[in-house]
From TrEMBL:
This is Large ribosomal subunit protein mL45. GO terms for cellular component: mitochondrion; ribonucleoprotein complex; ribosome. Its main location: mitochondrion. It holds the Pfam family Tim44. Gene3D superfamilies: 3.10.450.240. The keyword Lipid metabolism does not apply. It is found in: Mitochondrion. It comes from Ceratosolen solmsi marchali. Keywords: Mitochondrion, Ribonucleoprotein, Ribosomal protein, Transit peptide.
Length: 286
């Protein structure tokens, strides 16, 4: 009996086919080709590969196969200095300028001091003439007044792109620092005195042939200025009231630059000049 059972059990085990429980095929037969393309055999890079004996063309080809960009030669970026950062040897206006007549004692004394300081200015003018043969001090005084008027008119309209042609990169952020949310009305009425060059200097930066020139012009004009805040309320000045303005404006030019031009650079405020009227500010209160 036992022998019969053992024979049946052996026959059953022989006829049993083992089936795999874990399926390796994807359940969805679609997109079979696309699933095959997801896997690729990478090209293993030999770490101890000698590249010294390879030519530049072969090395470039191998780098291109691996998607490696060729190394660029080291080169420092160029620095362009379009203007100076300040006024060098600034002009010191005489106290009471514009109030005394040249025929008075104080006015005659001011003219004598101006002639004593004229030597360095003359040397600077001669340096400018080396780059501009047709340069003339009297003609430049009239030209500076035109630059002054056009620059202020563009500033009042807040045309930043055009203003860069009339002011230096040093003065540009200083002008627009306090102009946010403000409206400016500026008008030039007339010149009370002819524009006059009172000071001129030349200097070099980094190299001896990189020369900048600065000319200080005395402008005594009649102007109208009114400043409105963002709510349209008058903060400073008046559109009706005319005021006499005495200013010492510094113009600068990059002489070494063939395409350089004279631009507004700074304004000299003497220590003896009284402070102007402060602008009232608007605040939000809780």
């Amino acid at each position: 009996m036992n022998c019969v059972l053992l024979n049946k059990l052996n026959n059953f085990l022989i006829n049993v086919h083992l089936s795999r429980l874990r399926h390796t095929k994807h359940w969805n037969p679609k997109f079979k080709k696309q699933r095959q393309e997801k896997f690729f055999k990478p090209d293993v890079i030999k770490r101890k590969h000698n590249v010294n004996g390879l030519s530049e063309d072969i090395l470039h080809t191998k780098m291109k196969e691996r998607g490696i960009y060729p190394s660029k030669p080291w080169q420092e970026s160029a620095i362009y200095i379009s203007c100076t950062g300040d006024v060098f040897e600034p002009y010191i206006p005489p106290e009471g300028d514009g109030k005394f007549s040249s025929l008075s004692t104080i006015g005659a004394k001011q003219n004598a001091e101006y002639l004593m300081k004229k030597t360095k200015s003359y040397q600077a003018v001669m340096t400018i003439k080396k780059f501009e043969e047709a340069f003339d001090v009297i003609d430049f005084a009239n030209e500076s007044l035109d630059i002054y008027i056009k620059g202020h008119e563009i500033l009042a309209r807040k045309q930043k792109s055009k203003l860069k042609g009339f002011v230096t990169e040093k003065l540009f952020p200083e002008l627009f620092y306090n102009l946010e949310n403000k409206t400016i009305i500026w008008k030039f009425i007339k010149s009370l005195e002819p524009a006059r060059v009172v000071h001129s200097r030349c200097t070099n930066l980094l190299t001896d042939d990189n020369i900048f020139a600065q000319i200080t012009v005395r402008l005594h004009t009649e102007q109208i200025l009114a400043v409105y805040d963002r709510f349209g309320r008058l903060m400073h000045g008046s559109e009706i009231l005319k005021k006499n303005v005495l200013e010492y404006i510094v113009f600068e030019k990059h002489l070494s630059n063939e395409y350089g031009q004279w631009r507004l650079h700074s304004k000299i405020i003497p220590s003896w000049m009284p402070l102007g009227q402060c602008i009232t500010k608007t605040f939000v209160t809780n």
